[in-house]
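Task card 7
Instruction: Convert sequence to structure tokens.
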Amino acid sequence: MQGHATTHRTIGLADAMLLLVAIIWGSSYAVAKQALWFYPVLGFLAIRFGLTFVLLLPQLRGDGRRAVRPGVPLGLVMLGIFLCETWGVMLTTASNAAFLISLCVVFTPFVEWMMLRQRPSGLLFAASVLSVVGVWLLTGGVGMTLNLGDGLMLAAALLRAVLVCLTRRLTASEQVPPLALTAVQSGVVASGCLLLGVSLPGGLPALPTSPVFWSAALYLVGFATLFALYVQNRALGRTSATRVSLLMGSEPLFGALIAGLWLGERLGLQGWLGGLLILAATFCALRSAARPTSSQPGHAASAPA
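Output:
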């Protein structure tokens, strides 16, 4: 009886920590948008992922070296994701960004269909219809204006779905430590952004001195990346992948709420309805993904790494 109570408390703590991570990831869009007021996208990403790489460098010892081979191509895909996502955040509202990036959960089964020949269920087709209607409402409905920022967020969501499937394919044959894999991917993203930044006319400006920028960068590294990965990995050992997915699926809602409170962004009734339809589509996709096998990963990398 005592053991059951202890297990129940452990699961409750894991759930609470996952909700905290969902709040942190939801806030990351507003934080990144604020950081971009002080420094360009390529420089911001080079700093963010360069710091992450340095902090995770010790993970590449021993078994962590296995992460190098899959980590490089996965890092290149991740580079594309964060270029689209960060420019997208800069060019659209943080609330739109939070809802649109969550579509990667709906896109993933269709990417699996193309890459792995696994046909999605009927529920997933219904989810895709819900998501299309949600995007239509979120971006203006009848007077729909899908701006460049919204388009880049949709591209980032699609690339995240590709990253999930490619990660499964490249890491299926061997146990790759997740923090070591994140280290390699972060190094590739930081290097790619730095090379792109210095090759452009004018290069990168001097490092920003604003404490707001550095607070934002450290918050994203420390909380949205390292702390979030630690909690997610610990929770997966204590509860089901589906439960983790459902709890983490609340991230876009927190993103929209925080954008409203922090940045003063306002979604009208139509925008909220579109966002909630996207959330409903996400949960339908997660529920469908949980049906074939309880070991199938549910929610992978739908939020900033």
